[in-house]
Amino acid sequence: MIARVRTIQLTSGELTQVIPSIRDEELRALRHEPGYAGTLVLASRPGAASAERVEAIILWDDAHAMPPPATPSEARVYEVALSAGIPGGTVARFISAHLYPGNIDTVVTLFENVVMHAATTQLGFRRGLLMIDRAGDNAISIGLWQSEADLHASEQTGYLGQQIGNFTQIVAAPIVPETLVVVIEE
Predict the structure, then answer these.
(1) Comparing C-alpha atoms, which of 85, 61, 62, 65 is closest to residue 142?
(2) Is residue 16 within 8 Å of residue 91, measured between CB atoms?
(3) 3-class DSSP assignment, residue 27
(4) Distance CA 132, CA 139 (A)
(5) Domain ranges of the chain
(6) Antiparallel, parallel or unpaired: β 2-9 and 178-185
(7) Which residues pair with 181 in a beta bridge?
(8) pLDDT tens digits, one per residue of 101-119
(9) Which end of the chain has fewer CB atoms within 10 angstroms, the N or the C?
(10) Residues 139-173: tens digit of each pLDDT
């Protein structure tokens, strides 16, 4: 499976306009495309201290099914290394990491054998997604949670710190998890 990831930076108040546009216009057309496998749209929380933004992730069966990007900014393409769990989260922990060269396979192994195993023991965990860019040594991890309280509880138990600790020797910059709201999941 392949993912095209599009980050949309917004000015204050634009979020309420962009989400309906994605849902009502873009997704309506994509659903009929051969090879379309799903969509996950995450957005900054209302009232977040940082600028508003949307992470739109469109999933395709393979690279041949994915249509060319509408704009060069949509050209971020990742291999979906792992997608496991069940739909239905309301909030996401989003982590984007740049890795030291040659560590993609290590990330995939750790995510599959350690992170996902530990995540499934956390109350409210719904789904995990790992996307990798082998050429750029980049990875995106998304964990979907039933509620924000469940996500925060996983931080309080030490789960998050322990999982981040598994990757400290292979990431080129500190891991900074973000909490985003799930606005579209299909």
Answers:
(1) 85
(2) no
(3) helix
(4) 4
(5) 2-181
(6) unpaired
(7) 43, 91
(8) 999 999 999 999 999 999 9
(9) C
(10) 999 999 999 999 999 999 999 999 999 999 999 99
CA–CA separation, 9 and 36 (whole Å)? 25
Question: What residues have CB less than 8 Å from 174, skipping those under 6 apart?
Answer: none
Q: Which of 141, 89, 81, 150 is nearest to 115 (CA)?
A: 141
Cα 34 → chain centroid? 23
Smallest CA-to-CA distance from 107 within 178, 173, 175, 170 is with 170
Mean pLDDT of the chain: 90
Q: Which amino acid is at 176?
A: V
Q: What are phi and psi of 173, to 5 degrees?
A: -145, 155
Return the number of other C-beta atoms located less than 10 Å from residue 108's C-beta. Answer: 16
User: What's the confidence (pLDDT) of residue 45?
Assistant: 77
pLDDT tens digits for range 23-42: 888 888 888 899 999 999 99
Distance from C-alpha of 132 to C-alpha of 104, rounded to nearest angstrom: 7
